[in-house]
Structures are given as structure tokens and as C-alpha cells.
Design goal:
about 350 residues; alpha+beta; 60s Ribosomal Protein L30, Chain: A; Phosphoribosyl-aminoimidazole Synthetase, Chain A, domain 2; 2 domains; six-stranded mixed sheet; four-stranded mixed sheet; globular
Length: about 350
Amino acid sequence: MASEYKQSGVDLEKSDLIKDKLINNILRTHNDQVINNGDGFGGLFSGRNINKNSVLVSTTDSVGTKVKISAKLGLHKNLGMDIVNHCINDLIPQGARPMFFLDYLAFASLDEKIVLDVIEGVSEACSKVGCAVIGGETATLPGVYNEGDYDVVGFMVGSVDKNKLKTRENSKEGDILIALPSSGLHTNGYSLVRNIFNSDENISNLSKKVEGEEKNLGELLAEPHKEYLTTLEPVLDDINAISHITGGGLRKNLPRVFDKKLTAKINKNSWSIPPLFRSIMKQGNVSENEMFDVFNMGVGIILIVDPAKKNIILDQCENSWVIGELFSKKKDEENVQIL
């Protein structure tokens, strides 16, 4: 039976050997809230340090087709960091701090080096913010994925005291919008980029220089998703709302964190669009409007703060800047105006 299964594309012995090798990276993330469950079916995490008035916040995401870029360059570890940091940044808008993480990796055929590299990235990113990796799944799905393809998915749970939960009602007219820079595309827009630069068919295109940058195109595209909790944690309670600028850009993500009766007016002259985005726009003949709808355009996260707290936030957050302000929304106005 095992031999027949292996011939069909699933090698159980290889899978077990890989699990044995990656366990040390995972254990490195554990803290005293992780309960040893041996080879049990579920990861265990103690709730003894969770305030009884806390709210649990969960999130899940994938690195998407960024895997097609990073994998071609052999930068598999980056993808592990990508998925963890993306999940962290999705918890922050609720004011939550991460507690534990689970991963899901799927392959056409299992590749030991890729698995170990991805998990190394996951463990490194989780350790940085005190988040425990308590479980995961590594699946071999021949016939579902093409040979050489794989997927990286993550699940994270965090908590926040109920009285510190950030909701739409926290923001008001006159609040200031403060932006923090992204490290690149993060994990969005890669299907369009791959099409523009034809990287699936011609990997050499990833070696091309990008005007205004020292790194080449591939290095810029594979740059890991930036994590913002470390920067924001000291001032998290001073921020009214937080928007993680992911798929859909500023126009889709900002309105998720403030009242529908408000509009965010963004000053697009308040920052210089990074060369990578300008290169994508030029090479793909993409309109500026679509660029803002697809990409973060150099803005990784936006903080909505009371004007009295503006300088505190700007001092704490390196390279941050005032990008706009909240106003009362007039009839027929959009919730986000990029001016």
C-alpha cells in the first residue's frame, strides 16, 4: 500500500522525516503558554494569561502568487516571513497582539529544502513578536498543483482587552492620518506583475535593474512583508484606528476602519512613490488609478490619530509622515479621495 501511494505521488516516509527536522525551529517559538501535546491531533495553548474580558481575534491569509517569484529565486524563507507578518498586520487593526500561529503548506511533490526554509522564516518571524507556532499541515497534492508549485497559508489568533478593541466608532472628523512605509509590494498584486514582466516564462527578467534602486527586480519583488507591531506596540493605545494596506490598496482598505459618514482625503504629494511601483506602472502601461487600486504604492499601514497625539506617533514611528485627514463626507463623495 505504501509503495503504491508513493508511486501515486505521496511519500509518507519522506513527510515524516521532514517533520522530524523542522521540529526544532517550531519549538524555538514556544513559551510557557504552549501545552505539550506530543503527536496529538491539535495544538494546545493555555488561556491562563488571557484576561477574562479579552476578545480573541483570528485571521488567515495566503502569500498568493508571490510564491511564483520567490520560489524561482530560491528565497523560500522569505515566504514564511511574509505569511506571518501579513497575519500580524491583520491583527493590529483590532488592537490585538498575536498569541499563536498555524501554517499550511501544499505541494505537487514534497521538497525538503523548501519546507525547512519556509518554516525557518515562519519561526523567525513568530519569535520576533512572541507568537508560538503550535501546529500546521504539510500536504502533498499531486494533480492539484503543477510540478514545482506550492502554496503557503497561515492562521493566527491574538487577543485584546475588550475596552481596548479598536472599532469604526473610534475615529472622528479631524483625525490625522499617519502613514508608515511598506517594504515593497508585500503580498499583493503579483499576478499583475508576473504578467507585465513575463517572469513565469523568462526568469532572467527578474535580474533586470530597476531605475532608482540598487536591488534588481526579483530582489525587490521578493522582499518580505514588513511587520509593524514592533514599531507600534509602545503607542498602540494612542491610536484610534489602524488600516493594513493590502489587496485593494488605499481605497478599499481605509474605509474598513472608520465610519461611513467620513471621508479620508489623501495627499498623494506627501510621499514619493517608490521606484518599483513607478517601474511597474511604466512597463505595464498601468494607469495611476489602477495602480492605487491594486498596490499599496509604498504605504504599508495607516494610523488614524487624534491631532493631539500626532507628534507622539510621528516621533515613535521612524520614517512615518502625515498622509491625510478625516473629513465629514458630503453627498456623492467617495470614502477615500486621493488628491
